[in-house]
């Protein structure tokens, strides 16, 4: 089944995607990760995206949609869309793309997490510059400070997880992404999952939904 995982920044989309990849062999399509890879590779796409990302703003729809189209064209299946769509225009464009490619989405899972918890998760989040592993200074610290447990890479705070940028990201989420709940309710694909629990508990529920 192809899935959409959506929710506010820090809701746990990436963490749950990792588990779905590991346990069910699903393929993750994370637009945030694709942009970060493009920035690392200093491509034109990366340069354009970075201007928006560093300020906590959404990358324009046309850029994001074009990027996702390229990935879908490669013939993926059993995939999780993580962080896409993030606007109603993106959701409509996705429907068109999927129709063209005779693909479909089984469920759009919304991870619900209260705002004050999101703030704490985002300000404490740290990531490995090398392999992308995600840590939290309180709930999941690295064994050695600043060093990734998996690969020994440098563990840092994402530019857009700095306190001054988080406010913009959460505001944009409310304004542009939150309306997707209504969009997917209308399509009958919407399912809400309480994301303010243990990672394992959230995962068990998602696995049940997938069936
Ligand atoms: P994420 O890793 O999903 O939190 O994404 C990091 C940043 O990448 C976001 O704050 C946006 O600037 C950009 N981004 C990722 N996905 C999208 C999207 N679907 N639409 C617009 N911007 C996006």
The distinct bound ligands, ions and cofactors come out as:
adenosine monophosphate
Structural class: alpha/beta
* Biggest sheet layout: 5 strands, parallel
Overall pLDDT: 95
Which CATH top level class of one domain fits?
Answer: Alpha Beta
CATH architecture of one domain: 3-Layer(aba) Sandwich
User: Any idea what the radius of gyration is?
Assistant: 16 Å
Strand order of the largest sheet: 2-3-1-4-8
Query: What's the number of helices?
Result: 9
List keywords for this structure.
211 residues, 9 helices, single chain, 3-stranded antiparallel sheet, 5-stranded parallel sheet, globular, alpha/beta, binds adenosine monophosphate, 8 strands, 49% helix, Rossmann fold
What does the model show?
The structure is a single chain. With 211 residues, the chain is α/β, with parallel strands linked by helices. It has a domain at 3-26 and 78-114 and 164-210: P-loop containing nucleotide triphosphate hydrolases (Rossmann fold, 3-Layer(aba) Sandwich), CATH 3.40.50.300. The chain is 49% helix and 16% strand. It is built from 9 helices and 8 strands. It has a 5-stranded parallel beta sheet. Strand 5 and strand 6 (134-136) form a beta hairpin. Helix 1 (13-24) crosses helix 9 (199-210), helix 2 (31-40) packs across helix 3 (44-53) and helix 4 packs parallel to helix 5 (88-100). The longest helix has 15 residues, at 163-177. The termini are close together. The model has no long low-confidence stretch (mean pLDDT 95). Residues 9, 31-32, 35, 52-53, 56-59, 64, 83-86, 90, 160, 169 line the site of adenosine monophosphate.
